[in-house]
Task: inverse folding
């Protein structure tokens, strides 16, 4: 009997749930995919900031937590609880909790993980429906993700409480390319990233415009600090005036843009703005940035040939080559240039933004940017000190020390972000007011009223001070046997009153380099 009717029970077991679901009846456990957003509750009296990032990017969360925990170094009386920051289960919600002994409530910064089932839109809608909604959403590890988050927040009009603020962490694009707007219509004009979620957005990093202006300003103000080895030999100690006269001649400015990379196109345009009315430039467009580790793709190879032709037509003139891109395309193009004309290294200076990390020269230099194969000066931008390692015996929280070989700019950037948020939430430092913890509207007013100001009225970070420029200066190849390093890394910081000040220098010898201590976050 059981065998005879077994098929009936089998078909019923399969079809009945399908039929019930078709009627719209909710079945616990199967009506909502496991990966869909489920925001954690917020204890009464506390506030939450939601950090949205992909579930696969644990290292970025680690560096973010490093920075948040180190906020204790700059905010007296602050307690940071990181006991749930690194949960063993992937479905748990990691969080860092801030509290002050003399202030009510706590600030909870939580990582809500983006997946294929839990997209930015899903999380924004889920957080908007939970009571209370977050005070702020933190994101924008890249410009496209920042745009996605800003648009999702802008589409959502109703929130359980005040509309939250948007804090952009490291996305640098000024203008977004034309595309569909929130209504689905095509937007022909470009749009500023900070204006997508207007009046409620704050950017903690410098923009492409500010990076380009800072780097160009540095190169104009400090030509002697960019002198190549052959130029230094030409000048010598007794010929400083002759060297300065040679460096005072305006360089030939060349620029390359990778058209498939929005970061490259935006930064390229901002360099053009920074040079307008100062120096003309010749530009080459590379159709795509995909390629191998060292061999240039077809369009990069063709561009290299054209650049070499221009350089040969200007045999004695200095060349300022602007490469608004990331490490791999820049490395491929420069290898083609140096191999095509080895003497070019004696009069070429490369300028870029923050797309090439300092780690490419230091920690990963042997394979990412071998100085002996790419012996040209490089000027790049960082948002904080890349070699700000803790001195022996420092008061850094245990387990969160900063030691070489990993660079420090990202952790220190996040530490500054954490300090500004904590001071705004609890009404500390240069943020007026006594209400604690602050809601979105109060927090926005406090951030804009900081003394000294950190943000422009638009929500952009204020420029003109605090920018870092890093200069990689290779030494002559024959200097190795005499004990000199392969290159020197000079770090400069811009001060509103004193201009560009050198704050550190680091010797680089990639072929003999060994880690000198625990590296901290990778």
Result:
């Amino acid at each position: 009997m059981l065998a005879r009717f077994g098929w009936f029970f089998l078909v019923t077991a399969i079809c009945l749930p399908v039929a019930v679901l078709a009627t719209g009846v909710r079945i616990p456990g199967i009506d909502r995919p496991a990966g869909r957003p489920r925001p954690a509750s917020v204890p009464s009296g506390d506030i939450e900031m939601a950090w949205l990032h992909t579930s696969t990017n644990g290292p970025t969360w680690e560096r973010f937590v490093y920075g948040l925990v180190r906020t204790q170094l700059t905010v007296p009386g602050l307690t940071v609880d990181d006991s749930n920051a690194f949960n063993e289960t992937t479905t748990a919600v990691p969080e860092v909790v801030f509290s002050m002994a003399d202030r009510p409530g706590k600030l909870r910064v939580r990582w809500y993980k983006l997946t294929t089932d839990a997209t930015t839109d899903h999380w924004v809608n889920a957080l908007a429906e939970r009571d209370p909604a977050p005070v702020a959403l933190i994101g924008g590890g890249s410009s496209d993700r920042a745009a996605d988050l800003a648009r999702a927040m802008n589409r959502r009009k109703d929130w359980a409480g005040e509309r939250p603020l948007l804090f952009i962490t490291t996305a640098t694009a000024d203008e977004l390319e034309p595309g569909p707007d929130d209504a689905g219509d095509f937007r022909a004009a470009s749009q500023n990233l900070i204006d997508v979620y207007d009046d409620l957005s704050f950017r903690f990093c410098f923009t492409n415009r500010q990076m380009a202006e800072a780097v160009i300003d540095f190169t104009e103000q400090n030509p002697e600090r960019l002198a190549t080895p052959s130029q230094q030999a030409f000048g010598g100690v007794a010929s400083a005036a002759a060297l300065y006269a040679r460096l005072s001649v305006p360089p030939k400015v060349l620029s390359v843009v990778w058209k498939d990379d929005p970061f490259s196109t935006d930064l390229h345009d901002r360099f053009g703005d920074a040079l307008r009315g100062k120096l003309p430039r010749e530009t080459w467009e590379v159709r795509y940035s995909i390629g191998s580790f060292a061999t240039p793709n077809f369009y990069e190879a063709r561009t290299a040939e054209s650049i070499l032709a221009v350089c040969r037509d200007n045999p004695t003139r200095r060349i300022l080559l602007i490469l608004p891109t990331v490490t791999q395309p820049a490395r491929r193009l420069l290898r083609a240039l140096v191999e095509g004309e080895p003497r070019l290294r004696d009069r070429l200076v490369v300028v870029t933004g923050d797309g090439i990390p300092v780690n490419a020269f230091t920690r990963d230099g042997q394979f990412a940017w071998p100085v002996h194969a790419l012996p040209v000066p490089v000027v790049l931008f960082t948002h904080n000190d890349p070699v700000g390692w803790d001195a022996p015996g420092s008061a850094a929280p245990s387990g969160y020390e900063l030691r070489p070989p990993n660079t420090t700019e990202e952790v220190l950037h996040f530490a500054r972000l954490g300090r500004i948020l904590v001071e705004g939430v609890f009404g500390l430092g240069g943020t007026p007011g006594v209400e604690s913890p602050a809601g979105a509207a109060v927090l926005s007013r406090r951030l804009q009223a900081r003394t000294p100001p950190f943000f422009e009225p638009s929500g952009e970070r204020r420029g003109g001070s605090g920018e870092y420029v890093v200069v990689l200066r290779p030494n002559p190849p024959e200097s190795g046997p005499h004990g000199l390093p392969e290159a020197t890394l000079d770090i400069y910081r811009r001060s509103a009153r004193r201009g560009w000040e050198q704050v550190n220098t680091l010797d680089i010898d990639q072929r003999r380099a060994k880690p000198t201590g625990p590296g901290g976050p990778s």
Remarks:
- The longest helix spans residues 2-22.
- The chain has two domains: 31-206+388-463, 209-382+465-508.
